[in-house]
Amino acid sequence: MNHNAKSIRPFIGARDFQISRKFYQDLGFEETVLAHNFSVFKTGEIAFYLQDYYDKNWIENTMIFLEVDDVERYYNDLAALNLTNKYGVKLTPIRYEEWGSECFLHDPSGVLWHFGKFK
């Protein structure tokens, strides 16, 4: 089976759509509004959809891994944004594993982002 895939775009929900929109803008994603309750956020060729829909069980079990070129720089950039105070989110320091390294950030709704680099 030959997919010839060009991208993959997960759908995530938001407890408070407007706060989540601002959060992702602060992270440097470019937003394109598709409807009053639905946007796509992009960085380079990578994108995801944010929708004004919240289901606690779904959101709190959603994880996204974004591979970055430099976890230490990325973590420092995240820390400098002061997201914990601004949004009440949790930023977890870098973990070093045998496969690579990663840090973690929960968004305002509870989606868990992994920002990592493979060895």
Automatic annotation (TrEMBL):
Residue stretches making up the Glyoxalase/fosfomycin resistance/dioxygenase domain: 12-115
Classification via InterPro entries: Glyas_Bleomycin-R_OHBP_Dase (IPR029068), Glyas_Fos-R_dOase_dom (IPR004360)
Protein name in UniProt: Glyoxalase
Organism of derivation: Flavobacterium hungaricum
